[in-house]
Amino acid sequence: MNFKHNDLGTNDSGWHAQVIRYEPGDSALPGTETILTYFTSYGTNKDYIQSICLPAGNYYLRVSLYKYYSNSTQAVNQLYQFNVGDYYQFTLPADGKVDLNFKHNDLGTNDSGWHARILKYTRDSDGFGTETDLLNYISYGKVKDHTDSVCLPAGSYYLKVSLYKYYSNSTQAINQPYLFNVKFTQGNTFEKEPNDNTKEADTIMLNLPYTGYLQTTLLGSASDKDIYKFTLPGEDLVSVNFRHNDLGTNDSGWRIRLFSIVENDGILDPIENELRNVISKGTVLNENYENIKLSAGEYYLEISLYKYYSNSTQAINHPYTLTVNSKYSSPPAPFLPNFDIWATKNSDVNKIWKVKFSTYINESSLNNNIFITDNYNQKITCTISALDDGKTVTIAPANPYALNKEYRLYITNGICSKSGINLRNAIAMPFIVSKT
Fold this sequence. Notes:
It is a single chain. The chain is 0% helix and 51% strand. By secondary structure, the chain is mainly beta. The chain starts with a strand and ends with a strand.
């Protein structure tokens, strides 16, 4: 349940809300009320979420005045809004990309449909909640199958589904079934929403491609920005490569800004020194912005929507790939957290690793729990096989390793024995490819 109102300027007044199940009585006994959940939306908490799981049936929402003092009546005659939408919680185990697929029958009109939002909900120390929209789209009534994508860090999120109506009586989607699927692709070279300002900028490595998507806001505008930060260890002529699929028009595209921060006191907006400002139009699929002379330091890239007309929004939720090329290499990424790091081994370019466990392994637990990455923690395609003895696992690369490069073999404690006992410690073993 989502409860919204204007800021009253005080928490001495607000609204008290109760979800109630009512069981009617008979001629002899009165009916009974059971309060199933309740909350107080304080005056300065403009946007509050309360969740409850209920069986099918009829329920009541009672809203009354909350006042801390007897004269705390600021909420009287103040407008409030509430929406009892469908909320679903999901958790991402790692950074990556989410594809939200939404399906339904044809309603015969686009005046009604479903409003789908992926959001992050946080609550401060005083108990006040805040929703941050991360993906936002409308599945119109005649669009039976729709997918949008968003790149997110590991964590817990909510999917909220509510009624969309163009007119006040556009209620065709009510009581119509819908299906959705949240598909997750793990990876460290996706952007991580929200990254709309320099404080939340995604730190990226040199010479690695990163994928991102511009999003819409709750109001349907295209104010989303993706901001990335990179560090140059010395002076260099860098290039920025920007790639995307064909939009079929040049009326929409991406604006790419390269800038540095001249002054940042942490209070006011930082003062920027803009170094490059270019547009990648919708039919220009691969562009290099070259010979950008930069000294050592930190720099930012901002990706925003370019539109020739106000409704030229084709680039929204369309993937792009960004690479900052330099003669320098970024330092290796830290090892993934919560792994015991073993001593570095040497290998050849076709090395097949064998891992022998002390007990019989549940083969179904191997999936995603044994993997090899490069030294930026990017996964390498491998074949994982359990041998006939039931205790030994092999890890073979799909393609030869690069000579003189470092890789990492990760074994998580998600692996378990046939009796259901998990591996005690997660292990990371670095290895260097020193032989052909």
